[in-house]
Amino acid sequence: MGAIATEELSKSDKITGAMAEREEKILVLVRLRPLNDKEISKNEVADWECINESSILYRNSLQERSGLPTAYSFDRVYSGDCSSKQVYEEGTKEIALSVVSGINSSIFAYGQTSSGKTYTMNAITEYTVADIYDYVQRHEERAFALKFSAMEIYNENVRDLLSTDNTPLRLMDDPEKGTIVEKLTEEKINDWNHLRKLLSICEAQRKVGETSLNEQSSRSHQILKLTIESSAREFIGKGNSSTLSASVFFIDLAGSERASQAMSAGTRLKEGCHINRSLLTLGNVIRKLSKGRQGHINYRDSKLTRILQPCLGGNARTTIICTLSPARSHVEQSRNTLLFASCAKQVTTNAQVNVVMSDKALVKHLQKELARLENELKSPAPTSSSCNCSVTIRKKDIQLEKMDKQIRELTKQRDLAQSRVEDLLQIIGNDQSSNKQQRQKPHAKWKVQNKWEDEGSISDSSVNGHHRLDGVLAEDGESYIEDPSSRGVSDDQCKEVRCIEMEGSEASIGFGNGHAANHGSIGRSSHQNGFFYGSLEQRIQEVQRSIDSLTSPQPENPSVWDDAADASSSRSLNFSKTRVSKENYTNKEEHSETTPPCEVETDFNGRPGGFRKFAVLDYGADSGKLSRNGSQSSVGTEVVDDVRSEGGRNITDAEITSVQTFVAGLKDAKLQYEKQLGDGQVRPELRKTLRDVGLDPMLDGEDSTLDWSLQFERLQKAIVELWQICNVSLVHRTYFFLLFNGEPTDSIYLEVELRRLTFLKDTLPHGNRSVDSGRARKLVSSEKALRKERETLSKLINRRFSNEERKKLYTKWGIRQDSKRRRLQLVSQLWTETGDMDHIVESATIIGKLVKFSEQGRALKGMFGVSFSPPSLKRSSYGWMNGMSSLV
Ligand SMILES: Nc1ncnc2c1ncn2[C@@H]1O[C@H](COP(=O)(O)OP(=O)(O)OP(=O)(O)O)[C@@H](O)[C@H]1O
């Protein structure tokens, strides 16, 4: 394809047509080498045989009975008598030469030590470069410029192979180019001889050492990069030329090795460890990519994968040559190589033609594109974009239908609740009249309720799992109606009345709408609140179900744990089963269930003074105002008990904020905000902030409904980033993220959150200098609180995840199983990649499991019925309300 495509591209007006991305699988070749002299002298047997052009067979009859596969198929296999020229011509040439057409390409050699990687790569590099020069000579109509750079990764340090300076080079992240190696020499190539000379310098510079398996064993990963730029000569200097620019990478990996087989010690052993570790990361990345790129890919776990990211599933065409020794003694390593090759076969890349256009050419291209689009609009024939529109409309219709259904369902529930309220009122009325003569205050109940309306007290109604009703205790679905006066309950005590709980708490949530006037204070809870809590609860259960299914052990939900785990759910936490054999890819068992001694944990002395790790609303900035009411839910306490029992440390309840407290805080903030909106106190510039991220539901009205999903995504991104900037508690992020997943009714809560975070960000010490230093100090301290929170969460890992689950988690997150601080390492990674939504989803899922979002979610059911309190200005004591009040 390379040569043909470039010939077609010799005129710049043809270039733009070839710019589309091209998705294709990595090409995987297997090369078997002959037995070497050493192996022959040891009477080794060659157990592997290429039975046709694409299959390789393991012939050992003893192994055949072991249940392991004996035949493997790849794009192409080469037996020991195939020449390197044949491998190049039939296997790698087409992809390698894409580079002259402006398409990045890469050729890898992967395999155990002494299997023939360097032997193969040297030849492939030489043939490719010769063909490139041949191509350049045959295309005089184009002007070519070639650049060359070379590096090696030795013991996880990057070295410039074109420089005698051994100083390790740093990796930098460039927003446009991705990872770049700082100060790497890039030589402009004059001619073929010049390039040959540079290649021999690299060979001489590369770290090589003798092992028992290979006298000339490469001890580093070598990456050679040849960049080719070309432009059509006839357009050069005319302002409308375009340049094709692409690179070909030649990657000769160091070989995996078993210390026992390589008989390595000292320096060699250390090198071997580094080699194996980075190859393990490469294997993990390939395995993850082979499953369809869902979730977080650990490119950053090694320098090798960071540098090679574009070649692994990115903008490059890629070939991997896996080399094998046929000897029986290497069978395990050979099988590992073939497993790696099988995974690599599933990985797709998205290469594209890289064109650098001059301004003039760009304008010309855009004009053409515009004309094409105008034509498309005129012609009624179905096009891909109109298809997209109809798909979107269909999706919207389905969404609308779903919402309609929900509204009907909620209306039904509300009516049911309404009729129950009427029944209860009837009973209460009867009760009251039968006691009339004994009572001094004939309408005590109504009076109390009216008073409650006026004062809006905030004491919590949840006590030891019992919920106080109208002078009534309701326990687990059972309601008892009791006249307060008959128990001698005073008016003050009656202030604790919150609402009447129905048998099913869902039924108690929506009865405010349109009936408030008929039922005094009972109907005071607004329809909006009722609707919110109902849908919120439903959502909690949905979210919980997915968390449960995602984190339940294999036997209960095998599909989730399967290799092809629920591909339809992009939000799934894919704990993938490792298919790679133990030898190379499985790390050591975790030492024990108990917490291994580690720096972090020994530092932890119970609850430090003023430390509020789970300051959901306060972020540790104002510890005295965290707790909503001092009475933790039973769920919250259970979580704390778990923590407390970890290592016998003394951690108090206030350190875990229950989801109830969280939701109650949300509700308060919303009410406060609505009130401020009503009072016209919202500052116009803050309204603008909301518009900037695409949300202003209060102003946009109905029109915003259709755009809501888009707005939601933008807003969610902005909030996630602000959480990170403001060091917001991970538990808070998790609750918020899991609860608000895009329902239109979420908009107000997202708005409130964004406003709060914007305010917090503006008051960070490096931001608004006018903020008083005390406040700034408190905000800085939230960073410490976040660190502590991570520590505490990490201690829950052993309790919440089984041994097997933990192992999968560590592997998935690229953490060594034998690392002493593996739990902290895991938690430290959560919520850090704010631009990667899959990462965020996985982080929320893990923390949701750690804080037992499930039980808390279930407990909310009770809470919605009971602690449903009217708006109160007295409750502005939460951390975020402080922020809000200063804000507006
Ligand atoms: N296909 C082949 N035909 C003949 N000889 C080969 C072949 N492949 C490798 N060899 C020989 O085997 C030996 C080891 O090869 P090479 O150094 O390329 O292995 P390697 O995989 O790069 O090893 P390491 O990872 O230790 O660097 C060399 O002497 C090489 O010449």
Automatic annotation (TrEMBL):
ATP binds at G111, Q112, T113, S114, S115, G116, K117, T118. The keyword Coiled coil applies. GO terms for cellular component: microtubule. Residues 356-427 form a coiled coil. SMART domains: KISc (SM00129). GO terms for biological process: microtubule-based movement. Belongs to the TRAFAC class myosin-kinesin ATPase superfamily. Kinesin family. KIN-7 subfamily. This is Kinesin-like protein. It comes from Spinacia oleracea.
